[in-house]
Structure formats: C-alpha cells, structure tokens
User: Fold these one by one.
Assistant:
Number 1:
Amino acid sequence: MNGSTTTLGWSGLLVRLLAALVLVMATYNPEEKSYYHWVSQNLDSLNAIMAFAGVALLIGWAIFIRATLRSLGLIGVVLAAAFFGTLVWLMVEQDIVSPNNIRAFTYIILVMVSLVIGMGMSWSFIRRRMTGQLDVDDVD
C-alpha cells in the first residue's frame, strides 16, 4: 500500500478546502463575479465557453458531492448542516452578525457549504488518522 494515498497532511486538507471554496465561489457569490451571474446576465448570447464552464462546474460539484456523501453519509451531511446552522444562529444571537446583513449571511453560508464539501472530500483520511482504521477501499 502506498503511504501517499492513505495519509493526508495539513497541506492536503488545505488544498481540498480551498478547492471547495473556489468551486462554491465560482458558482455563485454576492460580488456578482460568478458563473451564475455571468450566464444570467448574458442569456441572450450563450456560447460554447459558457457551456464548457458550466459542464466543468457540474463535474466539480459531482465529484465533491459524491465524495462527501460517500465519506460522511446522508446523516453526516445533515449533522454538518445542523452544526453550521446552529453556529449561524449562535452568531446572530451573540450579535456577531446581523440577520439584516444579507451579504454577510450569503458569505457565511457559502463558506459553510465549502467547509462541508471540503471536509467531506477529506473525511475518510481524517477518520483514519484519528482512529488508526482502514477504509474498505484500502483493503487489497
């Protein structure tokens, strides 16, 4: 078994989290510099590059969502969403963020989505490191 495929360092985790953040922010962000805004503002002039970029984003989402569901499972994703949802609630209750600040709320939600899918992409590595166990995929 190759050790590089069964371990994940801090740099690997950071790369996955950044890739998830790039995917989420490239798809939509409140600065109107996203695929969503690009296409919605140019619906009358759709072209091959827009279609290609859309397919590339769909592939990225499929990879991240599939990996997240495989490693966290549906219950894990629901628990992660509940964790981050209550964290937002706590931030509002403690006056860290105002519920009237839509831009801040949007960024918080986008970052949380990227954290869920980024951690989902890395979870099997993290779990193995924490418990010393192997995944079924690792058994020869």
Number 2:
Amino acid sequence: MQAITFLKEIEQFQSPVLSFNDVIRIIGKSKEYSRVYIHRLKQKNIITEIEKGKYALSEEPFEIASNLVFPSYISFMGAYYIYGFTTQIPIIAQIVCQNPKKEMNIGNIKVNFISFKNKRIFGYKRERFRDKYIFIAEPEKAIIDSLYLPKYCPISESYEALENKELDINKLLEYGLRMNSIITLKRLGYLLELHGIDIYEKVKHKLNKRYDLLNPFMKTSKKNSSKWKLNINDVFE
C-alpha cells in the first residue's frame, strides 16, 4: 500500500495513536510485512513510534498523551490551559491514569502519568481537539483533581479557575464528595467561600477537626479558618 493511500485510510481513525494491530488491519498484510512497512513509514517521517507497538501521525502532545492508555485523561494545568482558565502555556502534560507509567517526552512537552485509584477516575470526556480527539477532565473535575494534588497545579491557579461563571457548582460539590478526600473538600469549601459561595452545610458531616494546610508547599501561617479547619498560608489577589 502506498503511503498516500495509507494516510487516507487512517483518516477514518479518530484517535491520533495507532497500534501495531491497527496497521495490520489497515494494510491487510502479515505481521512480518507490516513491520517492514512501518519501518519504511518511520524512515519517511510519516509516523513516529511513541513507544513499543504504538505510533502517531500527530505531533500534538495532548492528543497523543491522552490516547496512549485507557482509561486516562488530561487534567491539572493542561486542562486549565485548554479551558482557558490560565494563560500559562504548559510545558508538562499531566495525564491521570489508573496504572503507574513512566514519564516520556512528546515533542517539546514532558508527559507525566499520575496514577489514581480506579474510584477516583471519573468526570472526564472525549472531546474534539483540533483534528483529532482527546480525553480530558470536565472543568469541575480538573479543579477537584488540582485541589486533591496541588503539587501538580498551584492552589492560586485553582482559585482563579473558580472565578469562571460557567462552572457547575453542584457538580463541583458532587465530584468533591466523590473523591472521598477530606482535605480536598476543605480547600474547595474555603476557596468557594472566597468567591461568595458557601457549601459548608452540605459537607460539614465529612470534615474532621484537624487543621490542614491550604497550601502544602508553603510554611504554616498564624491565620486559621476555624470553620474549614485550614491553616490559611496562602493569599490570593
């Protein structure tokens, strides 16, 4: 099969990532022939081998990264950028997945795979992104993920993301509860309160009496929220 015919055939694929078996099905040849065929495509820079047995035509890191393993989805700063919550161009693509996976480089972007327990992998969707499809957290889930693990997305970015008027507050609350993380609920409740939204009565039965840090990467301050049992060690303007 000529390369141009191959490219026309794979236009039917909505995923930017092809497996070795996908190539076999497309060209209708044996495994041995398919290996030689793939080698020729790689030599012509038509496809790139992302990892063993997986190939990509796209050079878009977010397209490729969110289609490498299933289930998985873009979250944290990458999702914030795609949704317009931040103007910071991410240099790392953070992909939530179930099983641990080594980080890799795709183009000029480093890809980190962040392992979640299966019960915390929810609230994501398949969405058109440029010419292909990606898997990405819903806006509300991206915020919840970021409050759950702020090492991957600064608390200040989540504070700004919560300014978005199109967010579904009920979904934020639902996802916050579903994460089964007390500190996530505390951070969510406090930040929403700064935006004039009070969810305390709906979550107080889930909270504890221990004081946690609003920002785990800053020193303890002298300011506490007795309501949310948080040490307020970060300031947002």
